[in-house]
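thread: overnight batch results

M.L. [08:02]
morning all. the overnight job finished for the chain we discussed friday. pasting input first so we're all looking at the same thing
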Amino acid sequence: MRYRPALYLFAVLAASATVQTVAHAAAAEIIVYSTSQIQLTNVPPGAQIIELDRLQQLEARISHGLPANPQQAAHLIQQRMNNPEWRSIEGQVRKAAEDIAGAKSAGIRKVPAVTVDGSYVVYGASDVAAAVQQIQHARQQR
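M.L. [08:03]
and the structure it wrote out:
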């Protein structure tokens, strides 16, 4: 395996010795950990994008317009929680928290991070297809 200065490629789990071509990449599980500020390019169909700043965005949305007075803010939040839209927001908050926990569990240290089959990760590549090709090249070298 070769390491490049800006892109660190390493095996996170024992990887299959199977060589995949770029055409077979679509069948692989591709997860991209990123933020809303990073523009990703060449994202293969079926790749899952996880924005790790989504929880912060939701918190900002929930707290938008709250008064400085804690009692007034609590009353306003109670009103918002009675709104039918609240269940959707609540589900989004839960999913965003699960995504953060999943990234931590997967050992993600920085973004963007492109993972394939939970076995390899390329850091620092916003071109997802190029990162997947790097992983496939590394698999062929094994």
